[in-house]
Automatic annotation (TrEMBL), chains A, B:
This is Meso-diaminopimelate D-dehydrogenase. It holds the Pfam family DAPDH_C. CDD domains: meso-DAPDH_N. It comes from Pallidibacillus thermolactis. GO terms for molecular function: diaminopimelate dehydrogenase activity. Pathway: Amino-acid biosynthesis; L-lysine biosynthesis via DAP pathway; DL-2,6-diaminopimelate from (S)-tetrahydrodipicolinate: step 1/1. It is an enzyme of class 1 (oxidoreductase). Homodimer.
Amino acid sequence: MSERIRLGIVGYGNLGKGTVKAIQQSQDMELVAIFTRRNPQDFHIDIPHVKVEHISTALDYQDEIDVMLLCGGSATDLPEQTPQFAKHFNTVDSFDTHAKIPEFYEKVNKAATEGKKIAMISVGWDPGLFSINRVMADAILPNGENYTFWGKGLSQGHSDAIRRVEGVKNGVQYTIPSDEAIDKVRSGANPTLTTAEKHRRVCYVVAEEGADKAKIEETIKTMPNYFADYDTEVHFITEEELQRDHSKAPHGGFVIRGGKTGDNNNQIYEFSLKLDSNPEFTASVLVAYARAAYRLYKENQYGAKTVFDVPLSYISPRSNEELRRDFL
Amino acid sequence: MSERIRLGIVGYGNLGKGTVKAIQQSQDMELVAIFTRRNPQDFHIDIPHVKVEHISTALDYQDEIDVMLLCGGSATDLPEQTPQFAKHFNTVDSFDTHAKIPEFYEKVNKAATEGKKIAMISVGWDPGLFSINRVMADAILPNGENYTFWGKGLSQGHSDAIRRVEGVKNGVQYTIPSDEAIDKVRSGANPTLTTAEKHRRVCYVVAEEGADKAKIEETIKTMPNYFADYDTEVHFITEEELQRDHSKAPHGGFVIRGGKTGDNNNQIYEFSLKLDSNPEFTASVLVAYARAAYRLYKENQYGAKTVFDVPLSYISPRSNEELRRDFL
């Protein structure tokens, strides 16, 4: 390997932990430091040469880190952190509040342009790989309809949103797709399906002692972007039950397009993921796109970029010759 | 639409006919002329303003055509035509002899670089969309294995190869995947599978009168790149049977990667197509990538390009703002 890409991680929750593991699988990458808002002394990272630092010291690492992987949540962390970091570092984040992406893009683009850095935003599998497939299917089969189904799985973004509700100690959310709806779409019938007909959302919540459960349930069910438009169930459980029954983070989903060409020929395009660990997979996508951020930066490009802006070869550690020979 | 992309088609077989239909579905595109080696008078194309011309006149259209879609076969047409045309036109082709792609790339790259044109090579679904998914899955899940399955379906490239065998009047080839093998791969077991364990190839051949059928069968079964490595069946049928039972061109297939992250978590990545019409779908991919060829050319890029070199937004008729807002 000619030169290794030096990475930093901001935020050491599930996604940050997955990112550490993903970097260890990538021979062209090297983790330099993990930055946290908590006390760095509380962390024991058993990897040689990797430092744990308080987030306030990040700027001292400008010359030692090529790309900073921002592993905070979309609700409150990334809207603040990405514009701040993008002025000083190439960044990759997984901002996933779909409705707010245009606004987020504008802010981050301004910051990254000022700093002459690359900020890859909204990377992961949705937004991310699913977005890529929605665009590809739409471009190739203009006469057709895109469908996205999620689950069955635990959604990090939605669980994060639950945990930020006042009075909530802990919680998880499962998204469950409708088999009947998927079969209809696979037939090429291009049905009209409301979001609620495609999925429901099931939440398991641990309330803080003395919290107002009715208010928590109401706050979750009416939360805009996350729950308001869905058929949402809220179940209150104990911390012990949560740890015992809901500690894994499986997920997955489907992007399907039924298109028609020529004389009414059905062309069914389908992409799917079945993930034992959602944060580890999302982290793996972030790390691959760190490669792209680094290469775009080396070409003197800057500004906010999405998965739509990146030639695919930029996320691969392999040479163009190898890709043409063995993968085309 | 600000400006329409002006297209030409070279070769009016199944792929050329599918391309005409795909262009008609694309509002930002306009078909100028179809070029054929046969007598143009023999063709009746019922589309206003579209000319049918002999291939020898193509150079007269340099100022009227932005991108030329090369719809010939990979066995003998494209190895000659793409390097010739790439000197004078931006081109898109579907060269699909995987083993010869590096050599083809070098030749075409030289021609397109001389002519300062863009030559998008090996576009379609395999090579093409399947290649994209092989690279993406490999980059994101380095610890894993890629599997490609084809069919059940009629392969244009392989049927073309059969029809070029001496003594063959007509013929089709079906590729059939093994369900058992697919299930193993979906389980995340990452089995070792030989190509023959994954598929078999079944050929239906119409021999010319008096032809040596044993020799035809032998020639097909030993053809390098196409059949030699596979369990291949050859059935001789009449032209009537061929027209009655094998006139449709369905196809499809799967790219699956079983990868592992972290502590032995299985992450299953799957892409699949189920196509009523293989040539119409391949044509739809060619047309989407004509958009990319045109945009790269407008940026003063040139040379041979593959699907790995193109930012995804370049194949979409939609603006970057729209893609971020509605597809990310």
